[in-house]
Write a structure and sequence with these properties.
Elements (H helix, E strand, L loop, with lengths): L8 H5 L2 H9 L2 E7 L1 H4 L2 E8 L4 E8 L9 E3 L9 E4 L5 E3 H6 L2 E3 L7 E10 L2
Length: 123
């Protein structure tokens, strides 16, 4: 299995976990940002029904020169628990991710994407 950070959008759409959650009704889909509205990027999240895992996909359609990092207000998290970002092992509270935002670091180039896998951790 590929590391999530190296997934392309096509890989993500073929990922069994995403397909299971989305098509079986075992998960919730959240639209976070739309290219149709901002003309720069897309972002969406798929959360397990019990909010134990959340997959966030960010697709930078068009790059901006000298751009800053973007703050995204994510959805689909349980506000009373903590989540570990699988790639970096950083810990975030569900409340902070939804209310304070997640900093999306600047990416270079058009049509690049990132997949973030957040896993609920025991209290």
């Amino acid at each position: 299995m590929k590391e999530y950070s190296s997934y392309t959008t096509a890989d993500f759409l073929n990922d069994d976990l995403f397909l299971f959650w989305y098509y079986s009704g075992e998960g919730d889909y959240y639209r976070i940002a739309s290219y149709a509205q901002n003309h720069l990027y897309d972002c969406w999240a798929v959360s397990a029904k019990d909010k134990s895992e959340v997959l966030v996909t960010y697709v930078q359609v068009l790059a901006e020169p000298n751009s800053r990092s973007k703050k995204l207000y994510l959805r689909g998290f349980d506000e009373s628990t903590f989540y570990k970002l699988e790639e970096t092992d950083e810990i975030y509270s569900g409340e902070n991710l939804q209310k304070c935002g997640f900093l999306m670091k600047r990416m270079k180039g058009d049509f690049v994407s990132r997949l973030f896998h957040f896993i609920k951790i025991a209290k």
